[in-house]
Each structure stands twice: as structure tokens, then as C-alpha cells.
Amino acid sequence: MTAHAPTDIPSPTAGRRPIVPVPSSLVPTTPDSRPTGTGSPSGPGIPRPTFRTPVDTAIPTFDRDDTDDEAAKKAEQQRIAGWCARHPVRAYRCNRINDEDIAGQAWSESKKYFPEGDGADNRQDAARHCIWLGGMTARGDETIARYSADTHEQLSISQVDGDPSYGRHSEIMDRYNNETGIKIGKESDGDFATVISKCVTAANNARRIPRSQLEGMSNPGDGSLIFFRGR
Fold this sequence. Notes:
231 residues; mainly alpha; 46% helix; two-stranded parallel sheet
């Protein structure tokens, strides 16, 4: 199997394959006009959404690019979809993330600004994770972003033949960059364009960390990104 292929986020060229699929029947009929990430879906000047009664459990197909393990793909799809569908407001926000194609935009924007390399464990990868997590946080909420990313990392298969530590180092990098994405998303007042701009800036300033120094590394909350392949 190849190294941590690029990666957790579906390529837009493969069609709309939402990262957080949920039953469309759970979408509220009233728009959620709250400022994103502020907690309760109701408040002064913010209409309380009403919800349809669920009538089906159809889940859109979700296909990962970084593994040909069908069981892993299915497990990730079912876990995220089931979690999203347990609460109507959460389901609505998950669907909004899908409708706005946050995953596809994370892929395309990171490729646009950092076209060099294969997109694995380099600046493009760092930018992609930042935009993905930042977008899910800004347009959904932090809980959705964390659950989706954690589920992927738990079920991900990432390795280089003969080097069992590679996948662990790649996960450390991903989780570090995910934290920065969440931070940026929380500070962007629901504006995805701001997320992209801040993540691209952070990726331009990202630090290249030797793999030997990644063990035990955690994100200090300073808005930084890291990578270990490429320049």
C-alpha cells in the first residue's frame, strides 16, 4: 500500500461524496440562521428551526480515496452518518457541510495554492486538513468537526511497506493540523472564505518537522501547521 495517500478528504473530481453523510429527511424545514459556532440554535432574532419527521434512513455513498479496504470505508460511513442522524440540529448542520462541499473545497483550494507534490504529508496536506476542519467548524460546529476527523483517524489505514511507524507519524501530523483548523474555524465567525485565507497563510508558514521529532508532539494552540515531506 502507498504512503498516507491524499487522503482523508474525497477528491472533487470523483463527484460529490460527502464527508459527513446523513439522511436528507432529517434536514430542518426552517433555515438555521444562527451565527455558526455560537451554541444554541435559538436566541434573540434567531428563529427556532422546525424538523421533518424522519421517513427513511437512506445514506449517500461515501468512498474514501486513501484505502481500498471496503470494510473500513463502510465502517467510517456508518459511524459518522449514524452519529449525525441522532439529533435533528446536528443532522441539519452535517447536511449543510455536505451541501456546501466543504471537503471538496478543502481539496481544490489546497491543490490550487500548493500544487507541488502528491498531496501526502506535505504543505498541501497541511492546508487541506486545516481548511477541512476549519470549514466543518465554521459551517457546522466544533463537535461535528472533531467527531468526523477522529473517526477517520481511528479507522484510517496509512503505512509504507516495511515502515510501520509511518502511519503513526502521519496521524500525528494530521491531528496537529486538525487542531489548528478547528481554532481557525472558531475564530472565523462562520465565514468559510476567512477559513481558507487563514489556513493558506498558515500553510505558507508551516514548519517542516523531521519524523524523528514527531513522537509525542502536540499542538500548542498557536495557529501553526506542520508537515514532514516536501519543502
